[in-house]
């Protein structure tokens, strides 16, 4: 079956603030693959990290799970570890799509989806790993340290956080260069300059990036050690943080 292509920003209407609604859900998987450099590679490497550090029977919790793409891949890649998977998202439309996709997976009973505002309250004690793939950047900056502290409290000793984000640089000139390189990537994926500009306008007040250093400092202050990058492509970065035993 052909996946619906992202054409949301080809129209001449003034872009509304980005929202994870039904229109976005319909094209979301295509949007991710064409908008986030090495998206699938980051998921593959995440599976490798989890396989090396998790224990059989652990729980993996994906915060901002969207349509369930990451959890479904991990459930297949780590099938021999008897893991439990929980996907949490605040968008009913995203969760409906995730549940439909999970029905086609033979071991879908291992996967649970919950509707919840992760910034409000989170209670999944004893979790082996939390995944935040391009999720934290949509949470108000003042709430982010509180959420990271909650993750630390809910992890078992030795558990880990995988954090992938669009990031920014303090150096304005280099930051501009990184953004230009990213826009070049999007053009290679078939997006027009108009689509790129309209999408950026729609995200302007919604997606607020931190620098890599700010994300590392936030994780370290919560008690994670070590905190290190395992992937970076210009202004996209992935970190792994471990709760000491």
Element order: H for helix, E for strand: HHEHEHEEHEHHHEE
Sheet of most strands = 7 strands, mixed
CATH fold topology: Rossmann fold
Structural class based on helices, strands and sheet pairing: alpha/beta
Summed over residues and divided by their number, the pLDDT gives a mean of 92
Rg, Å, rounded:
18 Å
- Count of individual helical segments: 8
The number of distinct β-strands equals 7
Strand order of the largest sheet: 3-2-1-4-5-7-6
CATH class: Alpha Beta
The fourth-level CATH homologous superfamily is: Vaccinia Virus protein VP39
Low-confidence stretches: none
Q: Please indicate the percent range of residues in DSSP E strands (runs of 2 or more).
A: 15-25%
The CATH architecture category equals: 3-Layer(aba) Sandwich
Distance between the termini: 46 Å
Count of the separate structural domains: 1
Shape: globular
User: Residue share in helices?
Assistant: 40-55%
Description:
The structure is a single chain. The protein is α/β, with parallel strands linked by helices and 245 residues long. The protein has one domain: 3-Layer(aba) Sandwich (Rossmann fold), CATH 3.40.50.150. 40% of the residues lie in helices and 20% in strands. Helix 2 crosses helix 3. The relative contact order is 0.16. The mean pLDDT is 92.
Detail the topology: elements first, then pairings.
Blueprint: H1 22-35, H2 39-53, E1 59-63, H3 69-77, E2 84-89, H4 92-102, E3 111-115, E4 127-133, H5 144-154, E5 155-166, H6 172-188, H7 193-203, H8 212-222, E6 227-233, E7 236-242
Parallel strand pairs: 1-2, 1-4, 2-3, 4-5
Antiparallel strand pairs: 5-7, 6-7
């Amino acid at each position: 079956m052909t996946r619906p292509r992202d054409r949301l920003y080809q129209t001449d209407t003034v872009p509304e603030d980005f929202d994870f609604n039904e229109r976005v859900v319909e094209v979301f998987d295509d949007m991710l693959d064409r908008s986030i450099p090495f998206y699938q590679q980051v998921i593959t490497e995440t599976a490798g990290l989890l396989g090396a550090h998790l224990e059989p029977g652990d729980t993996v919790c994906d915060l901002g799970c969207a349509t369930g793409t990451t959890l479904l891949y991990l459930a297949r890649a780590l099938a021999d570890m008897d893991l439990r998977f929980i996907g949490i998202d605040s968008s009913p439309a995203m969760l409906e799509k995730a549940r439909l996709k999970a029905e086609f997976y033979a071991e879908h009973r291992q996967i649970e989806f919950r509707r919840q505002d992760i910034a409000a309250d989170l209670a999944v004690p004893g979790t082996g790993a939390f995944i935040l793939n391009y999720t934290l950047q949509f949470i108000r900056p003042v709430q982010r340290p509180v959420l990271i502290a909650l993750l630390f409290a809910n992890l078992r000793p030795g558990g880990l956080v995988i954090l992938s984000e669009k990031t920014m640089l303090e150096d304005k000139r280099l930051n501009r260069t990184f953004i230009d390189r990213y826009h070049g990537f999007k053009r290679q994926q078939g997006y027009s300059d108009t689509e790129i500009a309209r999408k950026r306008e729609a995200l302007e007040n919604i997606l607020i990036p931190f620098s890599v250093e700010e994300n590392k400092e936030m994780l370290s202050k919560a008690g994670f050690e070590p905190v290190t990058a395992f992937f970076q492509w210009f202004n996209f970065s992935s970190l792994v943080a471990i709760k000491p035993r």
